[in-house]
Amino acid sequence: MSDALPITAADVKVPEVNVPDAALPKAGNRALKKFLASKAAIFGGLVVLVFVAVAILAPLIATDDPLKTSFLTIRKAPSLANYFGTDELGRDIFSRMAFGARASLLAGVVSVAIAVIVGVPLGILAGFFGGWTDMAISRVADALLSIPFLILAIALAAFLGPSLTNAMIAIGFSQTPIFIRLARAQTLSVKSEDYVEGAEAIGLPNRWILIRYVFPNILPPLIVQATLTIATAIIAEASLSFLGLGQQPPDPSWGSMLNTAKNYMGQAPWMSIFPGIAIFLLVLGFNLLGDGLRDALDPRQS
User: Fold this and answer.
1) Residues of 178-190 as b/e, b for ≥16 C-beta within 10 angstroms?
2) Which residues are in the ABC transmembrane type-1 domain (predicted)?
3) What is the reported pTM?
4) What is the distance between the alpha carbons of residues 234 and 65, in angstroms, rounded to a whole number?
5) Which end of the chain, N or C, is less surrounded by CB atoms within 10 Å?
């Protein structure tokens, strides 16, 4: 009877388990067609683009220096010389609104970026690992969510001190719990999918699974939430500036312009009308854009 030959590791063939590429979100034409078919979403996107263009081109389209005062043109009504009239110091309101758009858009985008950068990783960790990690992160998020958003933002801004930068930080951290909860819920849903379980079964590192398979599949609802949250952040920045906790005079801000205009509602109503309309339109634009993205990216929508 002959001796059996030894079996080496090279002779053993382990069946390869592939995680399907279908696990990764594919940017198909269907979502784009659904988005373009929504007139409301297109209108919202155009409104946002107009305000972005105004903010970028403010030095070119401004009819005057937004900080220049003139006692000869105090509270002048709208005219060809001053499209939106002048304020209590004779400053051109159109020019101040054009530069003020920068503060509103910057506050909206930066504050939401802070909330996403801080909240999404924490939410993913809570949903993926569970246990004490989930409990600790979720309890902190729940505690912050129990405080009204604007009250929390005002408290943080007052603690940090009045400035646009501090206002953006305050708004961002006040919105962080929203993204923690959303990222956690989406991660729990994706975690139970076959492709994630398959990746865990073949021993892929957790970091690779989170980056390769979890994060891309929770991205669409995060994009929608971020777009809608920008609208909330713009209102919050205007509120903080109105209270003197945001952009500081003499730099223009729509909120601070409304604060000044409240004393001249009868004599110069245009001082409050135009900043109010601008805030309304920009917030409406982001809301319509977010609704359109939600309908286009949500697979449950027909």
Assistant:
1) bbbbbbbebbbeb
2) 101-290
3) 0.86
4) 24
5) N
Summarised one tens digit per residue, pLDDT across range 4-61 is 445 444 454 444 444 444 444 454 577 788 888 889 999 999 999 999 999 999 999 9
Q: For the domain bounded by 30-57+78-297, which CATH number is listed?
A: 1.10.3720.10
Which residue stretches of the chain have pLDDT < 50?
Answer: 1-2, 4-5, 7-10, 12-25, 27, 302
Domain boundaries, the chain: 30-57+78-297
Which tokens belong to 285? 């634009």
